[in-house]
UniProtKB/TrEMBL annotation:
It comes from Ambispora gerdemannii. Residues 1-38 form the DUF8032 domain. InterPro entries: DUF8032. It comes from the Eukaryota. It holds the Pfam family DUF8032. The lineage of its organism: Eukaryota, Fungi, Fungi incertae sedis, Mucoromycota, Glomeromycotina. This is 5739_t:CDS:1.
Length: 61
C-alpha cells in the first residue's frame, strides 16, 4: 500500500532529521530515506520498480 510506504518513509526521515539536525534542510535526508527504502525487499519506490521492469524487459504497456 502506497500510504503505508509513504508513512514509513516519513518516520525514517524524521528519525534521521532528529539525529542530524544540521542537515534537516535540503534533500540529503530524503535521499538517505529513499536509498534505505530501495534496499529493502518489497519497499521499492515507483521509480526504482519501473527502472527494474525496464531493465528486465517485463514492463507491460
Amino acid at each position: 500500500n502506497r500510504w503505508i510506504y509513504e508513512t514509513q518513509c516519513n518516520v525514517l526521515g524524521w528519525m534521521l532529521a532528529y539525529l542530524n539536525p544540521e542537515k534537516m534542510s535540503g534533500k540529503l535526508i530524503q535521499r538517505a530515506v529513499d536509498t534505505f527504502r530501495n534496499l529493502q525487499p518489497g519497499s521499492k519506490s515507483r521509480r526504482v520498480a519501473l527502472q527494474e521492469k525496464v531493465l528486465n524487459g517485463t514492463l507491460r504497456k
